[in-house]
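From the thread on structure requests for the teaching lab: each student submitted one protein with a one-line request. Submission from student K.M.:

"Model Signal recognition particle protein from Pricia antarctica, tokens only."
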Amino acid sequence: MFDNLSEKLDKALHTLRGHGQITEINVAETTKEVRRALLDADVNFKIAKEFTNRVKERALGQNVLTSLQPGQLMVKIVKDELTELMGGETEGIDLSGTPSVILMSGLQGSGKTTFSGKLANYLKTKKSKKPLLVACDVYRPAAIDQLHIVGEQIEVDVYYDKDNKDPVAIAKAGIAKAKAEGHNVVIIDTAGRLAVDEKMMAEISEIHNAIQPQETLFVVDAMTGQDAVNTAKAFNDVLNFDGVILTKLDGDTRGGAAISIKSVVDKPIKFIGTGEKMEAIDVFHPSRMADRILG
Ligand code: GDP
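Reply posted by the TA:
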């Protein structure tokens, strides 16, 4: 991902890399290029502007002009600031509950159901947890079947009740089942819609209030560009969620909106999805992502 942005930053920094006399003017020119690259990659305007101002201030403050290797110093500053922009240190998820309840939110097609399975598989195999998946989409029977198939694939139990049309009741029954059967994590997959609407928000908010999850995660398709930021904001306004899951980072995404999400909603990106398989999940590392962006 981020090929576009990476290439552009590379181009912008090329003249500074490793050698050459640097003046205040070409620091300004370079940061302008960096800003343009960020904007082209769909990064929110205000964030791109603040970002490049910080880079410029630091570059001039740290005597890039007199440094022996000004280009490398500049690349380091851009990388540090990019890492900071995406959240600094990696954040984990709260598994302290008995059981820990994790509520998944997001639009239809964002990758919620797939990620619910990936997370269950990750917690089972990497953290020795005993998860239970709960299917709360009462509108699309296919969504329940999909979670059921995922559960079979990773050998994780799935709770569902096709006769029940009340997602709050299903979520509560799922948690009760988890307690009774010794599951220490409950992952609740909810219904999404194709766009943000009041009914979906009211429903997810009702589930959220009723079950008080340890973690509320917002799943978003990284390929949806600037819309991803707007959707994140809409869900965060209602749920005040704990973290973001960026899916489809294996795809041909410009990815710039991903950079903006953390800044706009001030919530960490916790995991990324990198494919359709159950193993295609990674903890989000801001510094690794910055490395990838800068190439
Ligand atoms: P939901 O409606 O939010 O539950 O979304 P789904 O989990 O059904 O995912 C929608 C589509 O995206 C499915 O075809 C998934 O296989 C696919 N998908 C989910 N996550 C990823 C990912 O990280 N990479 C890719 N390439 N596809 C994904």
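TA comment: Residues 106, 108-114, 146, 192, 247-248, 250-251, 273-276, 280 surround guanosine-5'-diphosphate (CB under 6 Å). The beta strands are 100-106, 131-135, 157-159, 185-189, 215-221, 243-247, 269-273, 281-283.
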